[in-house]
Amino acid sequence: MFLDYFALGLLIFVALVIFYGIIVIHDIPYEIAKEREHPHQDAIHYAGWVSLFTLHALWPFLWIWATLWRKERGWGFKRLEEEQHDIHHRVSALMDQVSQLQHEVSKLKQQSHTTTDSTANVENSEENK
């Protein structure tokens, strides 16, 4: 008799834990959206409830939707374009600096060769005297 009541209590407890677990799992995208201050967090929350009744068919899409937004960069696409544009300009500036340095190095090499040649000519002329 006691075991019957114990089994019934255990069955009810397990059913409640599973029910609560499903509700907590379906709410994960909403919690992510709330933490990131997503502009569509209410829509994600409502879609999560709809997903609960459709056996979580929408849940992976809600997860993606919630994680795409970040407060500091928004959706990220515009910022990414700006960062790529900035990187392109920095690379262009670095390429210009490298070409300028190469030009200066070649100029210094020529000066070095002419200095070495003139020094050698002076030494040869002194030896010939």
Automatic annotation (TrEMBL):
Query: What name has this protein been given in UniProt?
Result: GTPase
Q: TM spans, by residue?
A: 5-26, 46-69
Q: Name one Pfam family in it.
A: DUF3302
Q: What phylogenetic lineage does the species belong to?
A: Bacteria, Pseudomonadati, Pseudomonadota, Gammaproteobacteria, Vibrionales
Using the UniProt annotation, give all residue ranges assigned to the region (Disordered). 107-129
Instruction: Give the originating organism.
Output: Vibrio galatheae
- Keyword terms of this UniProt record: Membrane, Transmembrane, Transmembrane helix
**Polar residues bias: start-end ranges:** 107-123
Q: Does the keyword Transcription apply?
A: no
